[in-house]
Every structure is written in structure tokens, then in C-alpha cells.
Amino acid sequence: xxxxxxxxxxxxxxxxxxxxxxxxxxxxxxxxxxxxxxxxxxxxxxxxxxxxxxxxxxxxxxxxxxxxxxxxxxxxxxxxxxxxxxxxxxxxxxxxxxxxxxxxxxxxxxxxxxxxxxxxxxxxxxxxxxxxxxxxxxxxxxxxxxxxxxxxxxxxxxxxxxxxxxxxxxxxxxxxxxxxxxxxxxxxxxxxxxxxxxxxxxxxxxxxxxxxxxxxxxxxxxxxxxxxxxxxxxxxxxxxxxxxxxxxxxxxxxxxxxxxxxxxxx
Length: 266
Hints:
By secondary structure, this protein is α+β, with helices and mostly antiparallel strands. The protein has 2 domains: 2-179, 2-Layer Sandwich (Nucleotidyltransferase, domain 5); 201-265, no CATH class. It contains 5 helices and 15 strands. Strands 3, 4, 5, 6, 7 and 8 form a 6-stranded mixed β-sheet that branches. The protein has a 5-stranded antiparallel β-sheet with strand order 9-12-13-14-15. A two-stranded antiparallel ribbon has the order 1-2. Strand 7, helix 2 (102-109) and strand 8 form a beta-alpha-beta unit. It is elongated and about 60 Å long.
């Protein structure tokens, strides 16, 4: 593949970026919806960036948090935990641009970092978008699906062929399964309580998603309702970093009176 440099007018080789190891990054997305005789199918896809291995292709009846979380639990149990997951900015994982969603918080609680593609830049998840096009062309085009169970059977067959049988040009004509190994980080069914060191001042997030610090309310987001967070001084005078476990989720700026979400601090 080649690309044109608009400034130099020269043809340069296109460099594909991929993470060095399996489970460094998982990409997740819904591929729109597909009509069936009874309702709609919403294909949920989960792809390992390094190997192009499809961890999940699920025929879902909706795009709600509980549905996604159930499929993620199955994937975590089978393959362990990734270091990071990336998604677009749509529901149910990114519909609050300035606050963390409940699904993001649940993923982060497992020790997985969460990131999002830039708005209107689908190329951030280019590998997943590319495989989506193949899936639509080879699975859904010209096929009338009956219901979710039959759709799942069809997707399972395609996923098996894609992962284990078909050589992939993006990985040197290997099959994705030859480059994938499960993560050594196991999914924990029951997580221990979050503990904070003595250097952090612990506060409980109130009903509207706020904490009280130095006599003032500071909003962190309703997703953290009931959680305990730790606050400590930041680098600049008047700034304070807010942690939820090991994740820096916000920064309080007493000078401007603003809370900066951790999403913007990354």
C-alpha cells in the first residue's frame, strides 16, 4: 500500500501500526444492525490488535451495557484480560464525552485501561473496520437471517474460518490464530476492595456524582456513585489529582473552579 504526501507530492509507503504482543490492545465495536425476519441483529465484535484474532463476534438483540458486559465476561474468562481496550465514542461505552460511563468503569475496575477513537476518525480502529467490511460482504450480503440463534451460528462459522483457516495479508499471510495466545492476566470474578495509601485523602462519591473537597462540590460523574476515590496534590499549585484505584479519573483545579475529566488528561 502507498500514500501520497500532499506537501511533498511524493509517494510514500504506508506503514501499518500494530501492537507488539497479543492482548496489548483489544478493539471493540458494534457493526450497526442487520435486519432479520424477527427483529434486528446487532453484531458485537472484539478483535486483538496484534494478531487480528476475533475474540468475540456476538449476535446481539440490542446495544445496551448489560448485553456488552455479559459478552465481555465470557471473553475475559476464555482469554484473560488485555492491557487496554479501545472503542468509538458511541453508546454504551462512550456516550458521555466528559464523564466515564458505567461500562467503562466496570472495565477499568478489572485493571484494563480504556481509550476511545477520535470523533469522526474511524481509521483509529482501522483493523476492525476492515474486518467488518469482509464480514458484511461474506456473511450478511444477500442472506436473509431468521433469528438471533441462527445468526449466531452463521457468525460462529465465519469466525472459525477467519481465525483458523484463512491467511491474512496484514500479518504476512499467517492465520490470526497462529499469532494469538491468551493473556496471563486472569479475570477475577470477585474483586477485592480498593485500598488507598496514606498520601491520598479518601472521599465518597455522592448521589449526583460529586465529591466534597476543601468545602466545595466537584463533579466526577454519576458512574462513580457510591465509590471511594483518593485525592492528592497535583504538580501545579491549586491542582489536585483524583484517583479511583490506580486510575487517575480527574483533576480538580481550584484556580479555575473546573474539574478536568481523566479522559482529557490522557
